[in-house]
Amino acid sequence: MKHDDQMVPAIGLVLQGMLGTLPPKGEMLIRVDTGYDGFLLLSETDYKRIGLHLSELPERYWPEGETVTGEVFKLRRALSIVYIPKAGLRLEGHIDTFQGNTENLTGLNFIKTMRLLLDGPGQQACLKHVFAGLQKVINII
C-alpha cells in the first residue's frame, strides 16, 4: 500500500479485462475509499479500455449509486480479476462505473478480507490478507 499524489492511501493493482490489462506494464495506484461500498470503481474510460463493457452483467443486476445531493443513478457492473502484485494476491470482484465517472477507487468490499494498518508519521502502510483462517502479512511501502 502506498500513497497517491494527493497523499491518500492507495493500493498498487493490475486489472484484467477482455481486451487486456490495466496498466499494460507495472501497477496502477488506486485510492482506498471507505465511503464506497463496492469492490472497485473505475473511470468510464478505463472500464472501456480493458473491455469490461463487453462482459457486463445484465442491467437488472446493476446496483444504484447516490450522489451527496441525493441524485440516484445506475452503476454499470462487470466481473473482473484484480491482482495485487506486491502481495502475490489474485482477487475476483465486481467492477463498477457510471456515465461521466473519472475516478478509480477501491471500496469496502475490496478490503473486507484485509486488515490495513496506516502509519501516518511513518508514511507507510501494512496490508494483512485474511482468507479461510490463513493470514499473509505484506509490508508495502
Task: Describe the secondary structure blueprint for this structure.
Blueprint (H helix, E strand, L loop, with lengths): L1 E2 L5 E9 L2 E3 L5 E5 L7 E2 L2 H6 L14 E3 L5 E3 L1 E9 L4 E9 L7 E2 L1 H4 L2 E6 L4 E8 L2 E7 L1
Parallel strand pairs: 4-10, 5-9
Antiparallel strand pairs: 1-2, 2-3, 2-4, 2-8, 5-10, 6-7, 8-9, 11-12, 12-13
Kindly describe this structure.
With 141 residues, the protein is mainly β. It has a single domain (2-112), classed as Beta Barrel (Cathepsin D, subunit A, domain 1), CATH 2.40.70.10. Helices cover 7% and strands 48% of the residues. It contains 2 helices and 13 strands. Strands 2-4-10-5-9-8 form a 6-stranded mixed barrel.
What's the story with the biggest beta sheet? 6 strands, mixed, barrel
Strand count: 13
For the record, the CATH architecture stands as Beta Barrel
* Count of the domains: 1
* Low-confidence spans: 134-141
Question: Please, what is the CATH homologous superfamily?
Answer: Acid Proteases
Helicity, as a percent range: under 10%
Supply Rg.
15 Å
Global geometry: globular
Structural class: mainly beta
CATH hierarchy, class: Mainly Beta
Main sheet strand line-up: 2-4-10-5-9-8
**What is the H/E string?**
EEEEEHEEEEEHEEE
Strand content: over 45%
Q: How many helix segments?
A: 2
Q: What is the CATH third-level topology name?
A: Cathepsin D, subunit A, domain 1
Overall pLDDT score: 84
Distance between the termini: 6 Å
Labels describing this entry:
141 residues, mainly beta, six-stranded mixed barrel, 7% helix, globular
Brief summary:
This protein has helices at residues 44-49, 108-111; strands at residues 2-3, 9-17, 20-22, 28-32, 40-41, 64-66, 72-74, 76-84, 89-97, 105-106, 114-119, 124-131, 134-140.
